[in-house]
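Translate structure to sequence.
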């Protein structure tokens, strides 16, 4: 379930200017989920395919790639689905974990998480 919007920056695969994007924080999702057209326009290509299970119980097989992302002053490589273009842009739990961030749903913000507590 989507909680709130945050801004991220996508770094093109072969260098260039950071591309700002607004994404929906969704801890029910696993990876970052971005439209295929956006990712391919930034030079990203599939590296794997994985099965996606939706909240409705339906499944699909989507391509996956590694994307360089800026979020709250940090820069990391995260896995992203190359989703159909009509799909929402989602920042999932595994992507948040890569940045050491958790969700404050009441404050509608991302908060640092001490990995030693896990």
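Result:
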């Amino acid at each position: 379930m989507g909680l709130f919007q945050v801004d991220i920056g996508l770094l093109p695969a072969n260098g260039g200017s950071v591309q700002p994007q607004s994404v929906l924080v969704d801890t029910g999702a696993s990876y970052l989920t971005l439209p295929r057209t956006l990712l391919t326009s930034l030079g990203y290509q599939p590296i794997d395919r994985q099965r996606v299970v939706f909240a409705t119980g339906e499944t699909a097989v989507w391509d996956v790639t590694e994307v360089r992302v800026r979020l709250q002053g940090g820069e990391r490589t995260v896995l992203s689905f190359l989703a159909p273009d009509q799909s929402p842009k989602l920042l999932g739990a595994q992507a948040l974990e890569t940045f050491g961030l958790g969700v404050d749903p009441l404050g509608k913000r991302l908060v640092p998480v001490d990995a030693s507590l896990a």
